[in-house]
Amino acid sequence: MEKAARAVRRSSVKLMSLGAGHGDLNVLISEVKDIRSTAKAFMNAQSVASQDLLKWAANEENRALQDVANQMAELNLAWAEVQRDFCENLKEYRHMFEMILEGEKHLAQSRHNFAICEQRETRTRKELKKAFKKASEAELQVLENRLAQAERAKDLAQLEVADKIRENEAVKLIRVKGGLLKVSEAYTEFAKKCSVIFEAQRQITQHLPDVHSQDLDDIKYTGSGATKHYVQLAKEKVRQYRHHSYHCHSIPPHYSEPPPPYSMSDNSKANIISTDTGTHYTFSYSTSVADSNTSPRRRLDNAPTTTTSTSSTHTTSTHNNNPPPTVEPEYQHSIVDYDPDWDSDCEDLTGAMGGAKI
């Protein structure tokens, strides 16, 4: 039955749009309106079911059921408010398409005006052509003036259409982008608040006592204070929730060519320092590609330091043309002691894991 009603509604919208055009946009607006109506109906049905649950539990003699039903009703009030805000966002979403439709109507009106001016110019030109041989000079002058006015009006109408097209396309992009961002934020906020509320409902439900292996007379319900706490905490989280900011005008990423591959010649460089006694060779090694996954602190500790050879051991005479001796790099630790608590690869999950280090 609902499918038939939906098909009839869509067909009626298309029929109403035959004269004015923009049938697809009108159908879209109708569907967004139906989304909002369905969401409101779903919200009302949930509220009625929650009230019925509360009435049923009130007539029971089970104190645990009464308390849980009361807290569920409180959560449902907060959930109804969340859904009401979401329906308002859907209303703004539909209004965005209605404004786009209004702009399309103005553009269609400008095009219609241009078509009328073009027809008037064509008709005046035909009249002037017919009256060229048998009309007087005064009549010809009048027709020529009318033709000039018609041409001028046609040119102005054409310029107006071109301006309206550019303006309408720009405004359409702005409205669609803004509307889609807002409805995306609305859905995200709706989902986050839904998670908060129904997580509180799950925690409240867990306080109902288990009767699988116990005698019913020995069971005592002690979760009244905890359930109230969960409800208040959920309401506070919903009230203080702020959705993440989305950058509407973010700069698109710049893609460039990747750097050239590393070679052995790039991994080591020799720096030559001239002194009075000779030439000292100092070797410094750059970090390899394999170290990119290591934490910054470990790269600092494992990095070789720049060393300078002493003049008594690695000094060559300025008059000797022999190649310099090969000097092995000397490794030493950094002056900063290694602290595993500071390192990013050894996190202190205090609170989540009771201070255990993973």
From TrEMBL:
Arranged from A to Z, the UniProt key words for this protein are:
Coiled coil
Q: Which domain of life is it from?
A: Eukaryota
Biased region (Polar residues) positions are 286-295
Composition-biased stretches (Low complexity): 304-321
Q: Annotated region Disordered: where? A: 286-331
Can the keyword Coiled coil be found in this entry's annotation?
Answer: yes
InterPro entries registered for this protein in UniProt: AH/BAR_dom_sf (IPR027267), PIL1/LSP1 (IPR028245)
Does the keyword section mention Coiled coil? yes
Q: Which Gene3D superfamilies match?
A: Arfaptin homology (AH) domain/BAR domain (1.20.1270.60)
Coiled-coil segments, which residues?
133-167
Which Pfam families has this protein been placed in? Answer: Pil1
Name this polypeptide is given: Uncharacterized protein
The organism named in the record is Littorina saxatilis
The opening ranks of the lineage are: Eukaryota, Metazoa, Spiralia, Lophotrochozoa, Mollusca
